Amino acid sequence: MRRIQLIELHEQSWFPSSLRDEITDALQFGVNFLEAYAPIAPLLQRMLNSTRSRTIVDMCSGAGGPWLTLCRKLQPDGQAFHILLTDKYPNFKAFQKAALASENRIAFYPGSVDAMRIPGELHGFRTMFSAFHHFPPDEARTILQNAVDARQSIGIFEITGRAPFPIALMFPWALLPFVLTPLVRPFRLLRVVCTYVIPIIPLVLLFDGVVSCLRTYGPQELREINETLSGTEYRWEVGKYSKASGQAPITYLIGSPRSHV
């Protein structure tokens, strides 16, 4: 199945910001509730230890991504570290909530951050979860080239995939808000109405989830993008990681300056 560059509704500039925040809240809560990215904690641990990085700069963070789960699983060399959330359309209320819940391990950048042009003052191991597929090949290459030019390590992780099993998982995933919405805090009437009365949130999750699968880069496509990057003093690792049978594999791309490994 070839990659298809469709659009996801919630990432469009015309999509109402209040609804976008509800979508990213639902995504973040579901990912942490299911601990969807917990299996790649050993990969992150290894990279943080090898690069001796004490800061993670998370790109396209949405409402905080999987960090409430992952930050409790990472202890780079037993030393303190922190995670900086960034996004082009930042959900600051969710960022503040994540910062409080993480016992100050999570912080956030106070402005809009384009993943293709990370501000020069932001140094650290860059990460991106379930967002790299948003970008067409030229923009995806720019994200990686920006990290190479800044000599910053980078990790890309995608739980979606262009295969029947990940696509099929989007249907039960879209039903989760009907179960989990009463658990999400703080309570918001808009979330309840857009879940149970007019099910906008589940429908957008379903549509965007299937589109995400169809847009996801496979390992070979990631390698092809890497081959077009300028600057050879980088070590790249591409693959799929799954800790248990029956679990959707997580596609990953990790790159570091050779001096860091």
Question: Can you describe this structure in just a few lines?
Answer:
The protein has 261 residues and is of the alpha/beta class. 41% of the residues lie in helices and 15% in strands.
For the record, what CATH class applies?
A: Alpha Beta
Q: How many angstroms does the end-to-end distance come to? A: 35 Å
Instruction: Output the structural class.
Output: alpha/beta
CATH architecture: 3-Layer(aba) Sandwich
Hey, roughly how much beta strand do the residues contain? 5-15%
Which term fits the overall shape? globular
If you average the pLDDT, what whole number results? 90
How many domains, in number, for the residues?
1
Strand order of the largest sheet: 3-2-1-4-5-7-6
Number of helices: 9
The percent of residues in helical segments reads 40-55%
What does this structure look like?
By secondary structure, the protein is of the alpha/beta class. The chain has a single domain (9-260), classed as Rossmann fold. The protein has helices at residues 17-34, 41-51, 67-70, 92-101, 137-149, 164-180, 189-197, 200-215, 219-226; strands spanning 55-59, 82-85, 106-108, 125-129, 154-158, 234-241, 250-257. The protein has a 7-stranded mixed β-sheet, with helices on both faces. β2, α4 (92-101) and β3 form a beta-alpha-beta unit. The two termini are 35 Å apart.
